[in-house]
Amino acid sequence: MGPLLINVAKRLKEPRPIGVWIVGPKDAPDTEEQVRRWNIAPVRLADYADYPWFLLGICQAAAKMC
């Protein structure tokens, strides 16, 4: 998946993250750096129980924008 994301990032007119990747509490510390190389913004959550609330918050914020 990494090479595909890098290829997409190269086609952008402006260098910016093209997405978000949730990094879990048990993921290796270098995972965040690897995700950054793919031009993806890593978000580390401290607990797997936080995943649903994080995703719900994104959905709620998006709904308010409509």
**Order of strands side by side in the largest beta sheet?**
1-2
Quickly count the domains. 1
Helix content: 40-55%
Q: What is the global morphology?
A: flat
Give keywords.
alpha+beta; two-stranded parallel sheet; 2 strands
Question: How would you portray this structure in words?
Answer:
The chain is α+β, with helices and mostly antiparallel strands and 66 residues long. It has one domain. It is built from 3 helices and 2 strands; from the N terminus they run H-E-H-E-H. It has helices at 2-10, 31-37, 50-65, and strands spanning 20-23, 41-44. It has a two-stranded parallel ribbon with strand order 1-2. Strand 1, helix 2 (31-37) and strand 2 (41-44) form a beta-alpha-beta unit. The radius of gyration is 14 Å and the shape is flat. The protein starts with a helix and ends with a helix. The mean pLDDT is 89.
